[in-house]
Structures are given as C-alpha cells and as structure tokens.
Amino acid sequence: MSDISKCVDILDLRNFDRKDPEFTRFHVNSKKVCEGTLFFAIKGKHHDGHSFLREAWEKGATAAVVEKFVKDVPIPQILVRSTVETLGKLAKRKLEECGDSVRICITGSNGKTTTKELIHHHLSKIVGYPIFKNEGNMNTEIGLPLTILNDYHGERILVLELGINKPGDMDKLVKIIKPSIGIFLNLGSAHVGNFDSLEELFYEKAKLIFSLEPFSLAIINEDDIRISNLKNIRRNLRYSGFGRKKGKVRLAGWSYEIENGSFATRSIYFIDGKRTEIKLKNVWNEGQLLDLSAVLCLIDSMGYEVKVETFEDFELPDGRFKLSKVHDILLIDDTYNSNVESVKKAVGTISNLPAKKRIAVIGAMKELGKFSGWYHAELGRLLGTFDIVFIYLKDPEILMIRDELNGLNLREEKDPLKLAQDILSVVEKGDLIYFKASRAIEIERVMEEVWRNLSNF
Predict the structure, then answer these.
(1) Model-level pTM?
(2) CATH of domain 4-82
(3) Which of 39, 75, 276, 392 is buried deepest, with most CB atoms within 10 A?
C-alpha cells in the first residue's frame, strides 16, 4: 500500500515534511525493518515497540505509528489511539481498494494450517490464476493485517486461517477480512484457559460463521453436534458438511503402506455417495484426513471438479505430525502445538505403525488455565501406550501427567541437550520417537539435537 494518501482518514500525516510519504513494507519487529518501512510500535507482554523506534529509524524506516510520542528519536511519528487497531484498518482498506474477491476463512482448534495449505495447493492447480494465503502462523489481529499489507497483490481468491486465543479476537479478524466462505473444522481445548468455558471458546470460533453474509457457503464438521447445530442457529446460509459418520463428504477409511522405502497413506472418501480414493505422501493421521475431507467438501461445494491427483505430491507442513526416517528410526515432528485432541489422533496412528519401541518426548500444554490439571491428566492417560516417556521440564505444568504414568518407564530432564542425549542412549534401529508440546515450550530444540546426532551416525 504505497499510495498512503488514500488512508489520510486513518493516518494523520500532518507532521510529515513530505506530502505523500511512500511505505513499501509494514513491520512490528524492528529487526525486520528495511528502507521504506512503516513501523508499528506495539506494546506486548514482554516488549514495548516504542523502545525500538531508534533501531527502526537507523534501519531505514520512513515513519512509525505510535500510541505516545518518543522524544529524541528523529523518526516521524504518527500518533494513534491503538497501533493494533490502526494496523487492522489499513489492511481492511487495502482489501477494499483491491475490489471484489472470494475470502475463504478457516477456524478450528486443530488443522487450520494444513487445511489452508491443502486448499491453496489444490485451487492453485485448477483455477489458472494465483491464489493468496497467509503465510505460516500469520493468523492473529497483528499477523493477518501484516501479511495482507505486505504480500497481498489483489488475488481474486484468498485462503486465510484465523487464529484466536481470547474473547473478542474473532470479532476483530472478521471485521478486517469480511469472510465470503467460512470453514469450522473442529473444537478442542487449545486456548481454553483464556476463556471461562469450552462453550465460550466455541462461540468465539462460531463468530466466523455468524459473520457470513446471507446465503454464503459454510463448511462444517457434521460429527461435532455443537458445530452441526449451527445450522439451526444461523439458518440463512448454504451449509455443506464433512465427517466420519455423515456429511456431503465422509472419510470412510485409510491404510498405510511402504512403497520404495517411503510411507504412503491410502484414504477412501465418499463425496455425495461416490467412492473416491486418494493416495497421499507420508503418514497422515485421522485429524489430517478429516482436514482433507473439509477441503474436498469446499472444492465440490464451490463448483470445482475434485482432481484427486493434485493431492499426491502434497507435503504436510513442518511440525504437524510429519514423519521422517533416519537410519531405520522413525521421527514424528508434531511440535507446532499441543492439545489432548491432537495427541489422541496421533496416538491412534502411532499404534498402527511398525516400531520396536515407541518413545514419546513430551512437554507442557499451555493456555489451559484452570483446566490445566484435568487436560494434563488426560494427556498422561493417552501416553500409556508408549514404552518410554521422556518429559521435557521447561515448564512444570507437564509434571501433572506423572500420576497417570505410574509403572511406565518415565524419565525427566530440563536441559534440552541433556534430554537429547538421554533419548539417544536408549534409541535403536526400528524405534519410533514422537515429539509433542505447545509452541512456547520449544521442544523442537530437543528434536533437532536428536536428529542431528542420528544423521551423523
């Protein structure tokens, strides 16, 4: 959005020497600032962006959006009531200036990124023009506007995952985006500690469906009665469902095989009663296969032909139950985030994979608040099928799984390098190692050390 003159009602430019300054990039992290950047000074939990104005200026920022003027920094400063709200307003304006588009928005406790990547992968191959997606986990009230401002170039279809972690988040996101199509994948315990109840979390996510214009398309999980019941609450939408038991698209079954030394998944779906078989690279768990059923439901409901061969080369995103093999040892990278629902799907799949020993490397699940004890106890019960469980003690909440693992081969360590060495001391060919924890735990540090050592065998 270099033509910032169209946003004079959002940004007060009266303090600028230049009449129409040009902004080519938008950042909240001073380390990413380059020439032409409009820097947003956002006050977070751990850092206040106002403390980094000088660094932004020295790196070439054209101006900074601030909530208070910072003295003795020569960078031009635009004073606003809320830097976060202003960021969202600019992104909303850019979308309006780019004209009509189809905005496919995804919510759910698990699988948003995989679903987004699958939709983008398939549509990019069949529609004949570029499709926009928000990169990585740029799905919050800060990340989503940034990716719109920096990377959106007027594509006719946008595929966006919307991440919420507290009451009111979805209101802010849908106000910016104005979704055309809503997808509600599932409901689990992720972030429930920031809400009074699971029901309150459900209604926050459901606001995506409530925000849709009349007769818009809503893709919903028919297996979850809470989500399926939205049809009786918001009646004037075009609903299409997916699931194991019912829906336009049903996941009927799947199996794993080894082909030329690599794993593959054969999945069977029924689309409006018609049997469809899809072969996929690597091992997919039930949750990921249900994500694919939501994608098939969307594609068919939009009127496009489902071309199953387009999924054959799809690579699962890193950190989302991604299996690798090194020296006949299976490593499962499920490190992006953690909740009991995703662990349950993972454990079900792991039990069907060949392994001499099944080893779990587990860290705490965060943002559970008053529900933490119950959910960690449930996590402990799920881990009872493993031969050895290593606990990463970066956060003491994980210790609440102990009582459920009595009699199991249980080991604990706080230092990631020592933990990696402990794992390496027991692992042997034919074993499987599963890594899982919430993002804040950074359990991937342990996994990367194990991987590095195994690769050097």
Answers:
(1) 0.93
(2) 3.40.1390.10
(3) 39
